[in-house]
Amino acid sequence: MAEAGYLSTHMLNTAEGVPAAGVVVELWRLEPAPVPVLVARTVTTADGRNAEPFYPNEAGFTPGLHELRFAIGPYFAGRGLGSGFYDVVPVRVRLEAGQGHYHVPLLCSPFGYTTYRGS
């Protein structure tokens, strides 16, 4: 198992009550850069989590505004539930040095989602 990282995520498919496996998730750094920078791209595992933490052990970490982009439209379409209303769900988070492990869960269905800062 990977060591605790600076940022992790977990997705749950609330329409079917299962982890959201196989979802493409991208992490973008929005500032302090003049243009967005793709930091990492991953696909959620069978338990709906990113296999490796973003910024593992703070390697390459830059404080500032970041955006996780969850491709839930293709995920739900692939499960035969239609693409729903949402295609890509962006979740902006401000990551600061010295704040420990950030965890961003996403609970989603084809027609809605919610998120919070987890532990």
Keywords, please?
Immunoglobulin-like; 119 residues; mainly beta; five-stranded mixed sheet; globular; 1 helix; four-stranded antiparallel sheet
> How many H/I helical runs?
1
Q: What would CATH call the class? A: Mainly Beta
Low-pLDDT stretches: none
Number of domains: 1
N-to-C SSE string, H for helix and E for strand: EEEEEEHEEE
Shape verdict: globular
In helices, the fraction of residues equals under 10%
Name given to the CATH architecture: Sandwich
| Major pleated sheet | 5 strands, mixed
Cα(first) to Cα(last) distance is 17 Å
CATH H level, superfamily name = Transthyretin/hydroxyisourate hydrolase domain
In short:
The protein has 119 residues and is mainly β.
Written description of the protein model:
It is a single chain. The protein is mainly beta and 119 residues long. It has one domain: Sandwich (Immunoglobulin-like). 6% of the residues lie in helices and 45% in strands. The strands form two sheets. Strands 1, 2, 5, 8 and 9 form a five-stranded mixed sheet that branches. A four-stranded antiparallel sheet has the order 4-3-6-7, with no helix packed on it. The longest helix has 7 residues, at 72-78. The mean pLDDT is 89.
